[in-house]
Amino acid sequence: MSSQQPRATSARPATAIDAIAESYVDSFVTLSPMEATYYGIAGHDADLDDLSPDGLAEHSALRRSTLAALAEATPTDDVDRLTIAAMTDRLTLAEQMYAAGLDHMNLNVLACPAQSVRDIFDLMGQSTEDDWATFATRMAKVPEALAGYQASLLHAREQGDVAARRQVAAVIGQCEDNVASDGYFTTLVEQARVGDGPLPTALARDLAAARDAAATAYRDLGEFLRTELLPHAPESDAFGRERYPLVSQVFVGAKIDLEETYAWGQEQVAEISTAMDAVAGQIRPGASVKEAIALLDADPRYRLEGTDALQQWMQTQADAAIAALTDVHFDIPVPARTIECRIAPTQTGGIYYTGPSEDFTRPGRMWWSVPKGDTEFGTWRELTTVYHEGVPGHHLQIAQTVLRAETLNRWRRLMAWTSGYGEGWALYAERLMAELGFMDDPGNRLGWLDMQSLRAARVVIDIGVHCDLPAPAEVGGGAWTYDKAWAYLTAHANQSEKSLRFELDRYLGWPGQAPSYKIGERLWLSLREEMRQREGADFDLKAFHRRALDIGGVDLETLRAAVLGQLS
Hints:
- By secondary structure, the chain is mainly alpha-helical.
- The protein has 24 helices and 7 strands.
- The strands form 3 sheets. Strands 4-6-5 form a 3-stranded mixed β-sheet. A two-stranded antiparallel sheet has the order 1-2.
- Strand 1 and strand 2 (197-198) form a beta hairpin.
- The longest helix has 29 residues, at 201-229.
- The protein starts with 15 loop residues before the first helix and ends in a 5-residue tail after the last helix.
């Protein structure tokens, strides 16, 4: 067996609980071919999801039948007990989201079908004639998928559920960007290659026809949103105090006291601001944070020109982190020691991670979606994000879990994901790198603190806006408005205006998700301290990390019970 292949033997006999989980995965990826591609499960790349109300209902039926099977099954060991707890939590909350109509009305600037239908093509093979034939077959189905999505949005509209006007308008803009003269679809065929040459004529013709159909479908989606949804979209961005606890639990993976967390978020912002002032003084005595940032932006040691240089820097830093941490601070399996850094074909902004395929023929990847027109980059800002997306962040937690076939069923390895666990761990990973001395350079440390400040500020904005809590005094108190949210964000984050406008739109349109990073980190740190207190001199940080990561991406309440040996 090649060292780049995951272990295929099963040291733990499969159980009835595993069979339920495996059956769920098989049925789920049949209903969601896009997710199959995302998880790296072969055999579904030619299809797209049924995004219509009927398609959503099929997912609901699968969840309900699986929950019934889990309720009747008898666990044989702690692995089974954890699977039951984690699956029951995730599927129950998903059913509550469906019953509340949130699946049908799903529309926002970052994580809805308007983006995912296009983005899934980035994860497909694009090397051989067969790859491109499959690519074209799937792309030809974009019109049907987006028509189903429109049907679900209309269904939601009939129930009085329409996303906020700001979100609808932004997605209309994204549709226009996709089909613009410099958009994704325009140069797709010309850039498609087999080896060093262009596609064969017939295949190029098929791809062009599919591309044209998909581009037309995105134009139609934009027009649909403009005429059928925008006139009905509410002006208010607030999700509402009544519905917010559900989405918060979905993303965090634990029930939290929203008022206490809102106050804690403001305390975190203040503490981080003090720490940033101190680091600014290290960069130049007496310098303010803004002055220190200006100095760092002008410092050639931290500057990159062009996306090629950016990609190379990402790869170098990601590889260096893996080399430094392997066998010292983490047990990193051989296949997980490879990560691929890429510039994304989209230009919406942000950095994200996609996991490896099940057989690791597609590696884990870090993607940078560079905003249109950006050509200069400051590494002092971004080193912490490399650790967040790579090792010891997402790549370590996801890739090493995919490899655990000898113990975990496929749902646990591939599909178990909670934002509070995953994003909380990635934020904890950034802090860990600072604790281990990797962020001692004042510029890099200020970059880490600046991102921490952003993450804390969005706890305040997200909970405050959506739950109608009083705004902080520094922005005038009283009810939150967009202008107050913008003032608070820009007072405590130092990215470009373009990036921060997108960030704020994200918080307003995807309630509960952004706070899960900082709240998740808080819960990870609390669990580490609880284990440290319990074990005293015997506490081993490396062993703690391994034990927690081996569990996989479950909700944080289940994680805590499992790590502390309290799973019933």
